[in-house]
Amino acid sequence: MTDLWTNACRPRPEEAELRESVWRVCSEFLSRPLTIGMGMRMFNLDPYSRPLTIHVVGATHNETLGARTTDMDELGRMFPGHQGLEVVMVGPEVVQGPIMRPPLRAFGPRGKVYISAYKGFYHQFWEEVVEKGEAAKPNLVVGFHPGFDGQEVNQDWLATLLLLRDYNIPTLFTMISNEELQSTLHMFMELEMDVKDTGSNPFSSLKPEHLPKSPNKAPIYANAHYVSFRGLLEVKEEEEQN
Fold first, then answer.
1. 5 occurs within a structural domain
2. Helix, strand or coil for residue 199?
3. Stated pTM of the model
4. Cβ 206 vs Cβ 27: under 8 Å
5. Tens digit of pLDDT for each residue in 161-208?
6. What pairs with residue 114 in β-bridges?
């Protein structure tokens, strides 16, 4: 290691600095399972009382390129001795790899996390797989950086959002900035989503990144903010009038 820093013409960092640097890099990867665990807590989903199924909607190369079947094992460490956890990656940009295998039809093994993937839009996955009984219905749906950045939501995302709303599925989305969060909240209000919680994600990535389109702006952090919703917003004014 001494030769490495000498050849790089840089002083060797202290041990604490190296550990912090390694943690920043690792936090980008660990942010996803930790955020899923946070979503389970938010919606009071108890993995010790029953097996749970989590669908990751809008999965891209960020989650699936080089993905291994052990990538979500941190969930098992968060909930040791759980009854079984299944994570299904769903999205049109899912990359072929070891996790590209069928979802579970029955409960998985206790204490294990099973990962599978489906290449396609979520509403298609629901119609072609879930409704035919070839996959379990989700206890929780999570989306990492869906990209609701103020532009009109496309029809594929709209179909997915309405499905999640109408089936009353606990859902958690993450955003990279407060601006994206506010834009998403505005859109959810228009869709009459019942927003449960929103704020800064305590399990966001600590690795600073710059957007290619905005290199001069302040760095962003993966999964920096979150918003959760479940079902259709009830209009209290109508209830009071009745």
1. no
2. strand
3. 0.89
4. yes
5. 999 999 999 999 999 999 899 999 999 999 999 999 999 999 999 988
6. 86
